[in-house]
Every structure is written in C-alpha cells, then in structure tokens.
Amino acid sequence: MTRLAGAVIGMAAGALVLAYVVVGWPILVVGGPLLVGVALTVGILVLTERPRALLAQRRATQGGTSPWQAAAGTRDEQPGSGLMSGFFEMPAALPEQRPAPSDARPAGTR
C-alpha cells in the first residue's frame, strides 16, 4: 500500500513539474494546493488501511457474522425477516405491460 501511495504522490508531483515547465509559475497557484491535498488524502488512506485490514481479518475469523447477526440468532429470529427485509429486492418477474391501442394519440393532441 505504501508503494502505491508513493507512486500516486510521485505522479502528482511529476504532473505538477510538467505543468510548471509548460505553463510557468502561475500553475503553482492551483497545482501546489492540489499536490498537498493529494498527499494528505493518500496519507490518511495509508494510516486507515491497517485498522481496516485488522477489522476485515477479525470478521473473517468470526465466520462472517456481525454482532447484529449474532444478536438476532440469540432471539430466535430468522436473518432477513426484519421490518425492511425484501425492501431492496427486485421482484422475480416484472408484470407484463400491454401495448397501447393502435388508435391512441399522444397527450395534448386532438
């Protein structure tokens, strides 16, 4: 991850140097803060990657169950039988639409 972060920052710095050579010093007004923003973003991502990887590893060792799934199991509830279960699921088959009659006219015409 740190090599990829270094590559991203290196490419951003290279782009800034190339833009400086082509355009001149005014590009530093925009490019300097952008380079700092890229470096900060990549730095934050590198710092947060380790805790995220540890969390993913811990979840993998728990068998993929979350605390909510474990709590539902102790109450003898079926997973996926809650208030919003099925809300985001698409129906198996959409209802068939009938074609418009041949003498139908578009709205607003006489």
Automatic annotation (TrEMBL):
Keywords in alphabetical order: Membrane, Transmembrane, Transmembrane helix
Region (Disordered) residue spans: 58-78
Protein name: Uncharacterized protein
Transmembrane portions of the chain: 29-48
Polar residues: compositionally biased ranges: 59-68
Naturally occurring in which organism (per UniProt): Pseudonocardia alni
